[in-house]
Design goal:
6-stranded mixed sheet; single chain; Metallo-beta-lactamase, Chain A; 8-stranded mixed sheet; alpha/beta; 14 strands; 4 helices; 274 residues
């Protein structure tokens, strides 16, 4: 029977361990959590790229995060999130968050405490309409109250707001959960609108024909649809509007706008998402 060289055996074992060490010390891939909570299917949002080009002094970056939430970024670095809620949020903490109470997908019960200004589009005390006129850095945010339908079908007077964002020479209006046509008083309060963000679902909010009339009255140079729950609803709206305005579909959910680069005539710009 051949004798076993203990020293030679230990040397061979140590050599094998040395070869295996890099693999043993390398990080173990993280396993996906089967029970990881996710946003609602219709609330899928887009991730923003890590590297983002600086904005010129007259530029504004708009990113469609999903549903009715947009991230608005100013040249001075102020970040605003519209219809901030607990289901879909931008991947950065905004400095200002606007909210509407029509549905839980338009407001948050637990907004990030790092947000400097949280602006509900209704008066939580129930004493009347919300009134906001806030300036932070290079953006002014104000609201125009509107009515909504309550869950019981009644009218909740001043229950929501359209929010207006004034950045340099650009005026952006987010119509929120608009349920009714705009009256002359609403139009005067909104003032000149360069960019309008508007819902097109046609059922939970104002019907599509009514929304077309709203857009005609605003005459914004850029019109960006939101709140459409999928391509079918959006395409129905675009079919109704095709004889009125040109449509531009973007490949990315973000767009940089300035007063100088607005289209020469009113244009619908579709950002990917829903």
């Amino acid at each position: 029977m051949a004798s076993f060289d203990i020293k030679a055996g230990w040397r061979a074992l140590l050599a094998m361990l040395a070869l295996a060490a890099p693999a043993l010390l390398s990080p173990v891939p993280a396993l996906a959590q089967a029970n990881e909570p996710g946003c609602r299917p219709e609330m899928a949002s887009y991730r923003l790229p890590i590297q983002r080009a600086n904005l010129g002094k007259d530029e504004v970056r708009l990113t469609f995060v999903g549903h009715a939430t947009f991230l608005i970024e100013t040249p001075g670095g102020v970040k605003v999130a519209t219809d901030y809620n607990d289901y879909v949020r931008p991947p950065v903490t905004p400095d200002i968050a606007t909210m509407n109470k029509a549905h839980s997908t338009h407001y948050s019960r637990a907004p990030d405490p790092a947000i400097k200004q949280v602006l509900p589009g209704w008066d939580p005390s129930g004493r009347g309409a919300a009134r906001h006129d806030v300036t932070m850095g290079d953006v002014r945010v104000r609201n125009v109250p509107t009515n909504i339908r309550s869950y019981g079908g009644d009218t909740d007077y001043d229950g929501n707001s359209m929010f207006v964002f004034e950045i340099g020479e650009l005026c952006i209006a987010h119509l929120g959960h608009l349920h009714h046509p705009l009256e002359p008083g609403h139009l005067r309060a909104l003032g000149r609108v360069d960019v309008v963000l508007f819902p097109v679902d046609g059922s939970y909010t104002l019907d599509q024909e009514g929304m077309l009339e709203v857009l005609k009255s605003l005459q914004a140079r850029v019109m960006i649809p939101m709140h459409f729950f999928g391509g079918g609803t959006l395409n129905r709206f675009l079919g109704r509007s095709q004889d009125l305005w040109p449509v531009v579909r973007r490949e990315r959910p973000e767009i940089v706008l300035s007063k100088a680069t607005l289209p020469a005539k009113p244009t619908i710009i579709v950002l990917p998402g829903h």
